[in-house]
Design a protein that fits this description.
393 residues; alpha/beta; Aspartate Aminotransferase, domain 2; Aspartate Aminotransferase, domain 1; 2 domains; seven-stranded mixed beta sheet; four-stranded mixed beta sheet; 11 strands; binds 4'-deoxy-4'-aminopyridoxal-5'-phosphate
């Protein structure tokens, strides 16, 4: 045993300063476990279709774990592929309208895989400024030249692609996770077609909510299955499970199997997660009205909150973003809602780089009329001074 000095230097002293700064700015984050049977009305989770606790979804997970084990036991290329994984890939691709699919252990890993495997040194990645952190990290890891273009600005994206010689990729969220606004997918696609670039779209918030029966934003835009289009998905939101996927032409998927590091070097998705996602996907196909209902609930929440003077972004999918006067007011507002029995999301910097703090509400398809009344009543009753003098976007 090496001799330990009695008073080692605090090598993490610098964290004290960082913590103090976070405290002063009201930006400290803490983890709180949620109770299994929550007394709170949930408008904070991404369980858009209310499927994570659906008996069929839960049974899908249970049966998969009982058959295949609690863990995948290895990477997908060794022991981590079960028939559930391949069925899920086949059914996801068919449902969303793509030739092939690849399931990964998270949506985060799916974005890293798609962006890194389809770009690389000497290529250009054009990335919408509002993109999710996993796309930003994919760009960083890719060693490609990355051009971050202003949010939802297809003209600048087009000009940036046109100025580049050689291989290029345009990447965007389909629905932006904080404000809930949709990307200009038709314009992005036209720019890619004209400039010979690939289009990668993260449809995390579109799957299950947008398009016919929840087939997603690319299906809604008539872009599913186009030979230059790739979609990334998470299985953790509308499908109520866990995991991610990349969808696209079969040769793109084969390329990912052979080159994407977050696929090759990661343990495969747990069988229970694959089984749950598969059960949810089949349920959604039998009950396509769930997708319409999620959008309808979002429209109701937006309409009623803005009619009462709150400023909110018009929802393009199931996310309703309500503006708060400040970061500390947002935090207080969310805490007051929680005390009154309503669980809402609270977004502050650095999650919102523009510095505007918000409450983030998710419009679940299974919310009843009474629950919507209660949610609206609570948000209005707890609204801080300065929150109710605005209007909708
Ligand atoms: N993309 C977007 C737009 C997301 O909102 C999220 C989840 N926060 C992810 C990707 C990551 O997906 P996962 O949670 O499955 O890693």
């Amino acid at each position: 045993m090496p001799q330990l000095t009695p008073d080692p230097v605090d090598v993490f002293a610098w964290i004290d300063d960082a913590e103090r700064a976070r405290e002063e700015a009201g930006l400290v984050r803490t983890l709180r476990p949620r109770p299994s049977v929550s007394p709170l009305l949930d408008l904070a989770s991404n369980d858009y279709l209310g499927l994570s606790l659906h008996p069929e979804t839960v049974r899908g997970a249970q049966e998969a774990a009982a058959t295949w084990g609690a863990g995948a036991t290895g990477s997908r290329l060794v022991t981590g592929t079960t028939e559930l994984h391949t069925e899920l890939e086949r059914e996801l691709a068919a449902f969303c309208g793509f030739e092939a699919a690849l399931v990964l252990s998270s949506g985060y890993a799916a974005n890293l895989a798609a962006v890194t495997a389809l770009s690389g040194r000497g290529t250009l990645v054009v990335s919408d400024a509002g993109n999710h952190a996993s796309i930003v990290d994919g760009c960083r890891l890719s060693r490609a030249e990355t051009a971050v273009v202003p949010h939802a600005d297809p003209d600048t994206a087009r000009k940036t692609l046109a100025a580049h010689e050689g291989r290029a990729l345009l990447v965007s969220d389909s629905v932006f996770s904080v404000d809930g606004d949709a990307a200009p997918l038709a314009e992005y696609a036209a720019a890619c077609r004209d400039e010979g670039a690939a289009l990668v779209v993260d449809d995390a918030h579109g799957l299950g909510v947008l398009g016919e029966g929840g087939r997603g934003a690319l299906h809604a835009a008539g872009l599913a299955g186009a030979p230059y289009v790739v979609a990334t998905l998470t299985l953790s939101k509308s499908l109520g499970s866990q995991g991610g996927a990349v969808l696209g032409p079969a040769k793109v998927i084969r390329h990912l199997v052979n080159t994407a590091r977050t696929f090759i070097f990661d343990t495969g998705l747990a069988p229970a997660a694959a089984g749950a996602a598969l059960a949810s996907l089949r349920l959604l196909q039998r009950e396509p009205e769930r997708a319409d209902r999620a959008r309808e609930v979002a429209a109701q929440l937006y309409g009623r909150l803005t009619a009462s003077g709150l400023t909110a972004a018009r929802p393009d999918a199931a996310v309703v973003s309500v503006r708060a006067p400040s970061a500390s007011a947002a935090l207080r507002w969310a805490a007051d809602c929680r005390e009154a029995g309503l669980f809402v999301g609270c977004f502050r910097p650095p999650s919102v780089p523009d510095g505007i703090s918000r409450l983030r509400l998710t419009a679940r398809a299974d919310l009843t009329g009474d629950e919507i009344d209660r949610a609206v009543g609570t948000i209005l009753a707890t609204a801080p001074a300065g929150a109710t003098d605005g209007q909708g976007r």
